[in-house]
Amino acid sequence: MSDVGISDSIPTWFWKTGPYFSLNLSHNHIHGRLPNELRIPIFLGTIVDLSSNHLQGNLPFVGAEVIWLDLSHNSFSGSITDFLCKESAHLKELQILNLASNNLSEKIPNCWRMWPELVEVNLGNKLCGPPLLLNCTMEGEVPDENEKERKNDGVKWVFVSVAFGFIVGFWGFVGPLFIYKSWRYAYYRFLDDMCYKLQSCM
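Structure (tokenized):
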């Protein structure tokens, strides 16, 4: 039922139907919240794709039978820690996880040992910490975009300062030699004297 124009919330009774080998409700206009725990009557190896909708609220906990979970391009928010670190009595079989383009923002917890079969992950939110390349702040928060821009501006000013210093230093010495002929002759005589003394020492 992907891309069929569904524009409603998912009723509670829906999660009691099934079982499913694949549940694909992606690219619709489904809104509302999912239950805290999706107790779907499904078979082992099920694909759940709810991407590209308007779902909100916390990320739901999904049973161990799911191997592919795509919740990307929604408006999920809240803590990713509860989702990743929730204890389960059964070994999680999830292999592919996509949470990109939601409203998740915090440090990623180190709970990957609970997902031993995971081979592909797309977190793609305002998250920080391993396995992402974006490091968290000392307080364990996501770096502020404006702060990064200010730092980048600071780096640019360093180059400007170096260039300005070079120009002032160079022309502060060479400029008078071009302007004042007597200074230029005196400088040339000084160089000649130095060359003569060096030759004498040799």
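Confidence is low (pLDDT under 50) at residues 148-155. The radius of gyration is 32 Å.
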